[in-house]
Structures are given as C-alpha cells and as structure tokens.
Design brief:
135 residues; 23% strand; alpha/beta; two-stranded antiparallel sheet; 4 helices
C-alpha cells in the first residue's frame, strides 16, 4: 500500500488507479514538501535529513502526466481539511518545484459533501469520485 496513506483511503486509491492510472508517466509517494530548509552541506548529515523529513509535509501522491503534475489528496469522505491540505501542498510545491510542469490539484474520494465539492471545484480542484462497488 502507498506509504503514509490512511488505511481507509487505500481502497479508494486503488479504484482511482484502476480507472485513471494509465494516464500517469510516473507516480511518486513520500515527496517532501516544505520542512526545515537545509544547506547543501547539511544534507549529508543523516540527523539533519531526518529533522527535515519530520517537519516536511507529504502529499498522498504526486502524479506526472505529459504536460502536468497532479498533487493528489485521497480521502474516503473528505472535509475542509483535505481541501486545505491541497492548497498547502501547492504552495510548497511552487516554492521548490521538482518538475517543471503546470501543477493541478486533485481530490480523490469515494463520496463527498456537496458544499465541499462545490467550493473545491470553484477553486480549480479536480474531483474524482470513486464509489465502492455495489455487490
């Protein structure tokens, strides 16, 4: 399972990948966003690298497409926190972009409150609803 993804969100992620995963050139997990900045010489120190990793933020996934990067948050039933996390991740990505492509925000869920979906959509967030399969 993807590192650091909440266990209840993993099935939602697998359903998303089944439907959309073939669009991605590369898929990244555990990308450090933000955190305590280190000088080049400090990056060699394992304790300082651990300190940076402990203070950085981790998006659920970052997907590279032909012309875009998707910063992805996965939540079975997302709330305002999930949308806020995406905007923090985007801000941190823009401070230090690792890949020179347009970034897009994506929220992957099995269900979503209509108010959250409307607000996120108006702010340009891509929303993917991946409901549980019916038996």
């Amino acid at each position: 399972r993807p590192p650091h993804m909440l266990i209840q969100d993993v099935p939602v992620w697998w359903r998303f990948l089944e439907s959309y995963g073939d669009q991605f050139l590369t898929l990244y997990y555990d990308c450090l966003l933000g955190g305590i900045p280190l000088a080049t010489w400090e990056e060699k120190d394992p304790m300082k690298r651990m300190w940076r990793a402990a203070t950085a933020k981790l998006a659920d996934a970052i997907a590279e497409l032909e012309t875009e990067i998707w910063i992805i948050e996965v939540a079975d039933y997302p709330g305002m926190r999930s949308v806020g996390q995406l905007f923090v991740y985007q801000t941190l990505w823009l401070e230090d972009p690792k890949i020179d492509k347009i970034e897009r925000l994506a929220l992957v869920a099995s269900r979503i409150d209509t108010d959250i979906a409307a607000a996120a959509g108006k702010m340009g967030v891509l929303i993917f609803i991946m409901p549980e399969p019916t038996q």
